[in-house]
Amino acid sequence: MKYSNMKNVAEKIVMPEDMKRRIIANCKLEISQTRKDSIMKKNKMFKRPAAVFATMAICLSLSISAMAASGVLKGFFQDIKRPDGAIVGTTYEQATDEIAIELNVNDDVLVIEAYFTGDAPFEAEELGIGDYQIVDGNGKVVKEDTSISYAEIIDGHATMKIYMNDVEDGSYKLKINSFIATKKADQPLTAYGNWEHNFTK
């Protein structure tokens, strides 16, 4: 496999840009060394393409595993680009571990408290749920919405509500795919992640 092809594979992996560049550079060095070794050994059983591909796979696997084990898979900012390449905004990716949620049910109201698990990764004055789904035990969606109701962030916590008067009593799971953070004079920032929490109404 050519380096250009392997570079494309690496670039499809979602991770911070500086980390991605280091992995690609390291893989290029490893592949170059593998090619040199295969030529020097002149071993017919040692197939260069297979060796290069194996090196690439090991390199990427170890890099990603190391990122996960060391807690490096934290959120990061990513530009929103138009087809012509112009940057029109920014999102915050992989925010799951940096925003936590807790749920309480008060009659027909589902109360969601969202809070930062450490230092806030971005500046915001208000936080709202970008889009969510409520599913039953069979995985059927019983309620979903993309309209945003913002709540003030106080000491890193924001309390939001979902009205459940149209949902029957039972056990459910809340799935949130994004939060929207706002700050005066700034564009809203979408923080993407995967938040799930079971509850009973």
Q: How would you classify the helix and strand content by structural class?
A: alpha+beta
How far from one another are the termini?
55 Å
Form type: globular
Contiguous runs where pLDDT drops below 50 for at least 5 residues:
29-34, 44-49, 58-70
Overview of the structural elements:
With 201 residues, this protein is of the alpha+beta class. The chain folds into two domains: 69 residues, no CATH class; 113 residues, Immunoglobulins (Immunoglobulin-like), CATH 2.60.40. 28% of the residues lie in helices and 38% in strands. The protein contains three helices and ten strands. The strands form two sheets. Strands 1, 2, 5, 6, 7, 9 and 10 form a seven-stranded mixed sheet that branches. Strands 3-4-8 form a three-stranded antiparallel sheet, with no helix packed on it. Strand 3 and strand 4 form a beta hairpin. About 12% of the residues have low confidence.
Could you name the key traits of this structure?
201 residues, alpha+beta, Immunoglobulin-like, 2 domains, seven-stranded mixed β-sheet, three-stranded antiparallel β-sheet, 38% strand, globular
Briefly characterize the structure:
With 201 residues, this protein is an alpha+beta fold.
